[in-house]
Each structure stands twice: as structure tokens, then as C-alpha cells.
Amino acid sequence: MPNASTDPNTTAVVLAAKRLPNAKAGGPYGKFRAHELAAAVIANLVAENNLPTAEINDVILGNATGGGGNVARLAALTAGLPHGVPGLTVDRQCGSGLEAIVLACRLVQAGAGDLYLAGGVESISTAPARANRTADGGLEFFQRAQFAPTEIGDPDAGQAAENVAVHYGITRARQDDYALASHAKAVSAALQGRFADELVPFAGLSADQGPRRQLTPALMARFPAVFVPGGTVTAGNSCPNSDGAAAVVVTSLARARSMAANGGTTAMGLISRDSATVGNEPTLLGVGAAHSTRQLMAHTGFSTQDLNGALVEFNEAFAAQVLAVADLLGVDPALFNHDGGALALGHPYGASGAVLVTRLLARARRGAVPGTDALAMISMAGGMGISALFRWAEL
Q: Is residue 94 annotated as a catalytic residue, yes or no?
């Protein structure tokens, strides 16, 4: 994605964002399929922003564990959008939701359209059983897709987190402390109502299920290693798997100004500056976001020092990986996720990248100074990272 255009017709803006409260897998959303979760967010965005539905160029959604069949198109129709509005489903695993938003921004910047709904969705609860067809016509079921050749190394996420902890010297104490801080920040944010404006209550759930008020250092220390005997990655310093959905309105600056002038939306938004997606060693898949952020910095001139004054949201799949990325970038991990991250809020795979952007917009609206940079980062299965940079601006 090139740096933000000076032409208002090809300058991409994230104008509005909503998400469902993250629900524990197998919990309140257990009877709803992915497209139904996404449809609830889409319908809310359309209604709250008075969007002319026939003029929506596309609905682009990320999804990681679904059964295919273009969940974005199904969600758009379920939400009541006109038959003429198409849908596109993106799969970059955990980065899918952010990739969908980046793609929508690129389309605006290319002049392909000026009104998109983009985001991501995951229903771990209703994800279909998956199987490979064997030579004799039978079915060989598997828990997850293959992300890298076996000879290179294709570890499960938990094993990869242990690999990162060992490779970068991330101790159990640091992981536990970071996870405790994430829960404390999320609990505080919820109590102060800092999530309220971004949430769409659904299926009786009006708040994220993950944050734990009673989590203490003593309790955290009791969790055993879950992936490697004697390891440092535990259920306490790992994210809960979640069902959820998030989506944003991506439009051109020209159209955003028109919408704001007509009273349909706010007069501020997140201007898309640039993004980068890169690969890294699959056995250390959790640090991909460090590499994508470095590339983004090289493209834009955005620096490590600039992070200190920016809004930064980074998906917390495992505390070990968050800390390794912070160390690689040379920053204090306290810069990430002011209101807590996925360790507390949950990780609905394909939606998580879109949750990051939703959080950035919500945080910016609570008093960020115009010109403030906003960075979303996420590491992905197979050894990849994606980072997207925005700027909070008056329209």
C-alpha cells in the first residue's frame, strides 16, 4: 500500500467500526455460525452510519477456520444487503481480519471504489470438522490445516510460543507478569466503560467474557505448562480461543467528508498511511509482527521512537510472543494495548486483526490529538506478520 494519497478521492479512511463482545468458544455464540456473527456487526454498522447499501462496493471479511463457501457473501446477504453487493473472504489465518481492511484501503487508493465494509469473523464453536481424502477414498480428519512443509517445521501455535520463549530468552516470570497486566487493564477498561461504544451486544452477551478480575500472581504461578513438559507457556499466559466478529467502514476521504457534512458520521477518522506483510521462520511464527513493522518503518519513516506517541494494538496470542516482538523492536511492551489485549479479551482468529483496528478507532475517539499515529500488528500461522499504520485526522 503506498503512503496516503493527497487526492481525497483516493485517500482511504476508516470511518466507523464495531465488534461483537468476544465469547469463549463453546459459550454464548455456540449455536451461531460465522456468517451470522458477521451479519450482526454488518447490520449494525449500516444502521448506525446510515449507509446507502446499494452503493457498497464490496464486503471483505477474514476467516480462518470456516468451511469455505465465501462467508463474506453469505454474511452480507444475511445482514440484508442488496443482492448486488458482492463479498470476498480472505484467509491469512490470524491476520485475516486486518488483511481484509488493508485490502479495502488499497481498493480505495486504487480508485476501484469508495465504500467498503471490511473486517473478520470466527466461530470456533461451529467450525466444521475437516478431513483430507485418502488414496482409497476414505477421510483422514485433522485438527488444523498445514501451514509449512514438514521438513521446514510446522509447529502448533503453543509449541511455537515455547520455541519463541526459548529462542529469545523470555522467562516464565515475564510472561506471567505481562498476562496479569493485560487482564488488569481489560478489567479496568470494562469497568470504566471504555469498550461500550465499540460493542454490539449479541446473544445476551454485552461484554467480553475473557477478562478475569480475580487473577493474581499466586494463581498465575499455579498454571502448569501445557504444550511442553517443563516449559513456560501456560493457560494463564496464553489467550483464550474465542468466537467473535468485527468490521469497519472504509471509504474515501472525499466521501467521508460528504457523509460527515450530511450528519451521517463523525468528522474524524483513521487515514490509512501504509501497511506491510512479510514472512519469517515458521518455527518462530509468533514474531512475524516485528518483521512486518520493521518493513513498514522502512517504507514510511515511522520510527521506534514514534511508537512512544502512537496508539498501538498488537494481538496477544501468547505473552512470550508479545514480549519477543517488543524486544526485537526495542520498545517497552507496556506501549501495546492500553486497555488489555487478546490474553484477556480473547482471540477469535479471523476477526482479531479487525478487532485491533476497532480498538484503535475507539481509543482515538476518546481524545487523541489529530495527527496521532495508530498502529495495528499481528503475527500469523506459517510464519508471517502484518502491520498497518493509520493517522487520526480531521476530515
A: yes
